[in-house]
Amino acid sequence: MAEFVKKLQSRVHKTISSHPEQIAVQGMAAVSYGLAILVDEDSEECQNARRRAKKVTENIKDVANYRRETLKFQEYLLKNQAEAEKEMHRMESPKWGSRLLALHKQMNTYDLTSGLSDFFSNLQSAEKHYFLKWMKFYLDRISQMHLAKLERHSKEKQTSAASLGVEHFMRELGQVYEAKHLTIKEGKSGKNLSQLVDLPKITADLMLEGFTLELFDEDVSNTPLQWISDVLTELHNKLEGQSKIMVITVLGVQGTEKSTLLNTMFGLQFAVNRGQYGRSASVAFLKVTEDLADDLGCDAILVIDTEGLTSPAMVKVEGAYLRNINNLATLVAGLTDITIVNITRENTTEIKDVFQMVACAFLERKMTGQKPNCQFVHQNVNSGWAVIQKLLDRRQLLEQLDGMIQAAAKAYKVKRNVRFSDIMDYDSGTNNWCIPSLWQGVPPMAQINRGYSENVSELKKYLFKIIKSRSHKNPPKDIPQLIECFRNLDAIKMIKSASEVGS
Within this chain, do residues 139 and 52 fall inside the same structural domain, yes or no? Predict the structure, then answer.
């Protein structure tokens, strides 16, 4: 085998050296034409979209500078507004009030930069799906090159500053839409909303086709409420009012392969290795087929993927980190029907880390009489629950979970004894899942482990049973009710933030 590998490497090296023009993608496409092989990308629509995406991205030389110059709203205005609001509450100084007023005036007159305007115009074209695919291809390549350059000149991996993806452009458009809508609502002068009036419809169409929507911007602990509400409203309209929804959320610390799990289970497009991106929570929409909807008792499933709760992108200063965790936990706990806690192997420390952060939020929801289902998924475990049970007794796990909830209850001055099972629908005998490693060996040359997909499929079937059971006991929320819940959660989040600043 070793001799065969050496011969293969030698042959590949020889081929690359003698025919370099055939190794590039375009070069291979040219060769395929001569062999009468059809190339999927060789269509007029796809090539037009490629040229447009290249035009948008070809001037990106430095990612950090481009973000500052093109994505000014999220890179400057929102961050400065968040800082001014925090300091104004903390210091009660007129200086910060004046600065906040000046920032609001600047937001009122903000217009799309040329790069962002070009991006948005392509979203309105019939070739938008090809365009977004090419944008992802070019932006990923640019980010990788920029990250490699940073790593050569710095010992620390500045992944957040080095990343630039389609999500950054969509975040900017959503935040601009939010600000424009606010200026109209308040009767202030400034640029109107007509330029972006079709953005919610476009985004709703994209969600129906598998694209994700950001719910929470951790950089400024901001939820663009009107923007998200308008997109969800467009979804409701496109579904002709048939929008009863169940919500599945995955929680876990950084690097526990949460996105890979969801992508495998539901065929979604969540970005993997998202530690390099600055997102905290994004949502995908799954339309349920008519026959399955009757059986499950819902029309759609919303899947929320959260950024790792100890992500380096979120850990900046202690106060900001804790505030982001609190806000994210409030959002997740208030919306979810089923919560998947994703951990690696038998790592009880990860369980403790997750629930110490979100216990208070789930306790608050229990006070409203609601209790989500909870599933523990142990990743990279190859020999079943017996191995976990040997290293971690179920009773010990429950005692730890009970202790976390009791600590949260004490903080909320709840006098009665509260257990984990009081706030989460959890059965230690059935709600623990072992998922083997995705790879058999070291990627990218390793083979896919078939056991991974098989176990994930079993988990998916069980989740559908839970959805069916919960839907028939209590009718799921439709999108208008979900929007109202979202608005109430945002109000709670703002009250919490204000009280934390005051303390």
Answer: yes
